[in-house]
Amino acid sequence: MWNPSDVYFGRTISLSIKNFSATVRLEPSRDLVIRPHPFHDLVSFSSTQHLAGLSGSSAIVCATFNCLLDFYEVRHLVKVEIRPDLILNAEKELGIVAGLQDRIAQVYGGLVYMNFNKEHMDKLGHGLFSPMDIDLLPPLYLIYAENPSDSGKVHNSVRQRWLNGDPCIRSSMEEVANLALEGHRVLLEKNYTELVSLINRNFDLRRQMFGGDALGSPNIKMIEGDLKTVSVVET
Length: 235
Fold this sequence. Notes:
- Pfam families: GHMP_kinases_N (PF00288).
- By secondary structure, this protein is mainly alpha-helical.
- It has two domains: 5-133, no CATH class; 151-226, no CATH class.
- The chain is 47% helix and 6% strand.
- It has helices spanning 56-71, 83-93, 101-108, 118-124, 151-163, 167-189, 192-210, 212-215, 217-226, and strands at residues 11-15, 111-115, 128-132.
- Helix 1 packs across helix 2 (83-93), helix 2 (83-93) packs across helix 3 and helix 6 (167-189) runs antiparallel to helix 7 (192-210).
- The chain is globular and about 55 Å long.
């Protein structure tokens, strides 16, 4: 919720979903050598649909990272707050454009409120992450389109406009971050009517910044259809 302000020193609230997962098994080998290859890798998708916006790439990297922490017995040496950055850095090497929130949700698990205030990020090297009681959430529907797409391509142009100081992008991202602050409050109050309003406003701002073509007609149809009956939380 209140995506994508995590890339712009904002705030978000995210949750992990147990229905979808990535599993990695690490075994020592004297013979097997893994070399980088531009077209093939050692990954196959199972429960997480490829390019469905369900954070499949970060889930695989996160699971691999957890394997390495345990294999080398260094989990206690790597603070939980910095693990999402390490996971994201690995994805950046692969050319993936993304923010931290998916990785934080996967590292912490459950429902997490995230504050990416620039002062905190510069001083601490990470944001402020607060796990929340999952029972604060109302019943939710998870809906996604079957046609795959790469969300990283969507972020590229808006990111550049933000870096260039575009006043529309800057003010819209600030409003998205403030919506998350309000969302944190209304979740604690279990004020779901106001929560729906905040989520809908978030979608309006995303559509304003990224445009309908970037978000995709199937996604817009799903959301506009569901706004008539239920609130939709984007993953």
